[in-house]
Amino acid sequence: MALDILVVDDEPDIRELVAGVLSDEGYSVRTAETAERALEEVRTRTPRLVVLDVWLQGSQMDGLSLLKYLKSIDPFLPVIVISGHGNIETAVAAIRRGAYDFIEKPFKTDRLLHLIERAIESAALKYENAALRNRAGEDEHWIGNSQAAANLRAAIEKVAPTNSRVMINGPAGVGKELAARLIHRNSLRAGGPFVVVNAASIAPDQMESALFGEEDPQGRTVRVGLFEKAHNGTLLLDEVADMPLGTQNKILRVLTEQRFQRVGGRSDVSVDVRVMSATTKDLKEEIEQGNFREDLFYRLSVVPLRVPSLAERRDDIGDLVSYFIERISDSSGLTPRDFSEEAMAVLQSMDWPGNIRQLRNVVERILILSPSDSSRPVSVDELPRDTGSGAMQNSKGGSAELVGLSLRDAREQFEREYLALQITRFNGNISRTAEFIGMERSALHRKLKALGVGSGLTRQDG
Ligand SMILES: Nc1ncnc2c1ncn2[C@@H]1O[C@H](COP(=O)(O)OP(=O)(O)OP(=O)(O)O)[C@@H](O)[C@H]1O
């Protein structure tokens, strides 16, 4: 996708020369002869780079003020200042106000092109770092060789280069956002931005301003919207079912016309954005209940993709665990450890309601809690018993650890847990416990002793 550059210069020769050279290099170029005209162009769409002559004849607003304004709407927007001979002081002032660099007239076009490349690279790094900071710890690799994972990977590769709108459905933490990211990375828009908006985390009355940006009564941009930030790239509408109905209308319009107006604005902003959506909800049901527009659903769901839950692809758990061990130990310096066969068997028998995100958290927690000198494999005892949402219960509702044990050991373990629970429940009273479980008091005593249960629990014996 051609990068969008705005050239602001009052001298037609320079404007045309620079625009011509940049077009030849494959950039998409807009020009403005005054600061006011530049503002209009920026209003139509925020460019990816601005070449600005700060000495603008015939403009009401001076070049430095224009620069200040550009920086206020996007602090990372690279601006290269052209300065006339003898204007070095102004150029230095421009750098202080956030310009990337300056170039003095007359200049060699090669040098300008070189500067532009460097400025775009440096801005891309800044955007990327900001995105990384927002998403610290996120991975980019698609792990999984199960049939379900392989099918999905094939679908991702197929749909990526098509530019079609994709609707990704699946339970929480299953990798929907990662799937969208991979589609973007494998698409023709890979060089453009990938922007995510989570509809569930934005207040409904802020949604339109977040998506479409905002203008003040003078028509100046006070907020650049996410649609505009995603120009030439991809916008993921995450938790799209939570989008307010009013906003759904407006999105529908953008999808049809690829243009919109900022909140409070009058002029049209035109963008080229591939829109993808993700949802944990059944949108057909949401449509029936009147929460989601059917026409929008069909627009968004040109290609539907379903990401299966982790419980539907247990074969991937081993690979995912190894992957997370490597990633987490690399990024945080924790000592990597293997998992014992029994511990792996336990992980593979869990329900994982929080899916891959939960598995990753469990691995991380185990590595953090590992003794610093431990090189032995992670044992069943080290697995967290409760992960906040009952994950360590397997699908049959049984105790997870039992899966890794022989029948004899499992029976013993079960008896131990069962009796400890009953004794706690009867407040340490052996007689009541014995009566409830249907055992002789003396037999229960013997059993508890043999299993090593109850010494601290038997507070009263009635
Ligand atoms: N196939 C995979 N291989 C490696 N890591 C994965 C895979 N799928 C998901 N992950 C990781 O699991 C975590 C959760 O994934 P992601 O945020 O994409 O899920 P989600 O379905 O979008 O969740 P939510 O519905 O809560 O937004 C992330 O750290 C992601 O990198």
Automatic annotation (TrEMBL):
Keywords: Activator, ATP-binding, DNA-binding, Nucleotide-binding, Phosphoprotein, Transcription, Transcription regulation, Two-component regulatory system. GO terms for molecular function: ATP binding; sequence-specific DNA binding. The modification 4-aspartylphosphate is found at residue 53. The keyword DNA-binding applies. Gene3D superfamilies: 1.10.8.60, 3.40.50.2300, Homeodomain-like, P-loop containing nucleotide triphosphate hydrolases. One of its GO terms (biological process) is regulation of DNA-templated transcription. Residues 4-120 form the Response regulatory domain. InterPro entries: AAA+_ATPase (IPR003593), AAA_lid_NorR (IPR058031), CheY-like_superfamily (IPR011006), Homeodomain-like_sf (IPR009057), HTH_Fis (IPR002197), P-loop_NTPase (IPR027417), Sig_transdc_resp-reg_receiver (IPR001789), Sigma_54_int (IPR002078). PROSITE patterns: RESPONSE_REGULATORY, SIGMA54_INTERACT_2, SIGMA54_INTERACT_3, SIGMA54_INTERACT_4. It comes from the Bacteria. Residues 142-368 form the Sigma-54 factor interaction domain. Residues 373-397 are annotated as: Disordered. This is ATPase AAA.
